[in-house]
Write a structure and sequence with these properties.
Shape: globular
Structural class: mainly alpha
Helix content: 55-70%
Distance between the termini: 62 Å
Number of domains: 2
Strand order of the largest sheet: 1-3-2
Number of strands: 3
Largest sheet: 3 strands, mixed
CATH architecture of the largest domain: Orthogonal Bundle
CATH class of the largest domain: Mainly Alpha
Bound molecules: zinc ion
CATH topology of the largest domain: Neurolysin, domain 3
């Protein structure tokens, strides 16, 4: 059995090597590649991804999994060996259900859709993208139908990113959260908006990058195993536990864009850097779900980065870096500016209070579309109506309405949005659990000490990689299942004080 296990691991690592080579090319494409490389690069990546897919779905792997499963079930559930067989089997069964030709059809269609969207969005031309989006919806339904027996058609699609979460459970969490959020958002947006002019001065790019890298290192992002590069849409990517990279963008007339995106991506990166090296290169070596991943980025960006304690520690450094721009600004003015709440059209610009409302309306639309209760042709008007009732404002066009996010135009419909809000909910849950164990964490943050918090996350979340599902992690940490209370309590207390609610 040990020999079979060794063989399985070797085959999995070879498949992963090809995936990681494609990831390096993708990172390069988004950071350094000259425009002339685009068409060849698309081909390089397609070839590598296809080879990786073939290697991973090799029937020899299926046979090894069959032979190893009884052995693995006799081992402790949380052992590396049992977890490897269990998690690989789950992924193998999922990947082998989808015909290779169908995978090709999806990638060809989404690549086409993406390039049409890239032109149609700035031109505000929904009619042009509509037939593509209709086909995307068909393909999304077809993909779900390769997994018969689901409770809701979105469930199989959600499984790819947030394994085990179901429409029913997400819907009930989200509606609870919505009921708690709407009155807070309404109470704040009926007040005069916070003044964030101190962030809207000229802040040179090099200095913004320097201070952002400094803060990433302080919270614990390891630059011996990472680096920061510029890109259009910030992301984190990893090729091995020893090479976890992040990217950012800088707006010289807005301090915060670069700083908080670096803290956000550092949160993703610290999760990947914290996985036990023994799991590297296998299906266990990486974050377990998009919700848990996002819990870490949002934790470091918001619960730490936008907290009063962190601001007390960090703002003097920021003032020293930008003495002319921030010399006369008070800590309180800065803290209010970085936590400004307002009704906005664009999800990625939204504040902590309204952000989840943006996500929930997308998730509801995905369910309506997949169920056939909403037609693509009616999406623009439905979007405007729902936006008005939830966020209190109405987009004047589709560009900043239902065409704003890349997800539906560069991928499928279903599975891509729920992770953002699950991540916020989990950030509150995990942070509260860490504070229960170590009540001194907030005062440590005020002194610029982050080791206790990071060590707690490493012990309970990071080191396990994908061994446990999100649900299993939550059970291990809290003894119960996912719930919104800690996150809501966090928002109520922070924004209650900020806006005297
Ligand atoms: Zn993120």
């Amino acid at each position: 059995m040990e020999e079979k296990l060794r063989l399985l691991k070797q085959k999995l690592i070879e498949a992963d090597d090809l995936d990681k080579a494609a990831a390096v090319l993708s990172w390069d494409q988004s950071t350094h590649m000259p425009p002339g490389g685009a068409s060849a690069r698309a081909r390089h990546m397609a070839t590598l991804s296809q080879l990786a897919q073939e290697k991973f779905t090799d029937p020899a792997i299926g046979k090894l999994l069959d032979e190893l499963t009884p052995y693995a079930e006799s081992l402790p559930y949380d052992s590396d060996e049992a977890s490897l067989v269990r998690v690989t089997r789950r992924r193998y069964e999922r990947m082998t259900r989808i015909p290779v030709a169908f995978v090709g059809e999806i990638s060809e269609h989404t690549a086409q859709t993406y390039s049409v969207w890239a032109e149609a969005r700035p031109a505000n031309d929904f009619a042009r993208i509509r037939p593509y989006l209709e086909k995307t919806l068909d393909l999304s339904r077809k993909l779900a139908d390769y997994f018969p027996g689901y409770e809701h058609i979105i469930d199989p699609l959600v499984d790819f990113s947030d394994y085990g979460m179901k429409a029913a459970s997400i819907r009930s969490l989200f509606s609870e959260l919505r009921q708690a959020l709407l009155p807070i958002a309404q109470a704040i947006t009926s007040q005069p908006p916070a003044d964030d002019s101190c962030l809207r001065k000229h802040f040179p790019q090099d200095q913004q990058l320097a201070i952002s890298k400094k803060v990433a290192a302080q919270i614990g992002y390891d630059f011996q195993r990472g680096r920061v590069d510029l890109t259009h849409h910030p992301f984190e990517t990893n090729f091995a536990v020893g090479d976890v990279r992040i990217t950012t963008r800088v707006k010289e007339n807005l301090l915060g864009e670069c700083l908080f995106s670096v803290m956000h991506e550092s949160g993703h990166a610290m999760y990947e850097q914290g996985v036990r090296p023994e799991l590297d290169g296998t299906p266990l070596g990486g974050g377990t779900s998009s919700g848990v991943h996002e819990s870490q980025s949002r934790l470091w960006e918001n619960l730490v980065g936008r907290s009063r304690n962190f601001s007390e520690y960090f703002f003097p450094q920021l003032q020293a870096a930008f003495p002319e721009q921030l010399g006369g600004v008070t800590l309180d003015a800065y803290y209010r500016a970085i936590n400004k709440v307002e009704s906005s059209l664009i999800r990625t610009d939204a504040d902590e209070v309204t952000y989840n409302l943006h996500v929930m309306l997308r998730f509801d639309f995905e369910m309506d579309l997949l169920e056939g209760r909403l037609a693509i042709k009616d999406l623009p008007e439905a979007w405007k109506a729902r936006f008005l009732s939830d966020i209190g404002i109405q987009p004047q066009d589709d560009k900043d309405g239902c065409m704003q996010d890349v997800h539906w135009y560069g991928g499928l419909i279903g599975g891509a949005f729920q992770g953002y809000t699950l991540g916020n909910i989990l950030s509150g849950l995990f942070y509260a659990a860490a504070l229960d164990d170590h009540p001194q964490i907030p005062s440590q943050i005020r002194e610029g000490k982050f080791d206790t918090l990071r060590a707690w996350m490493t012990e309970h979340i990071y080191q396990h990689g994908s061994k446990f599902t999100a649900d299993e992690l939550v059970r291990q940490v809290t003894g119960g299942s996912i719930r919104i209370e800690p996150y809501i309590q966090y928002l109520r207390s922070k924004y209650g004080e900020l806006y005297a609610l």
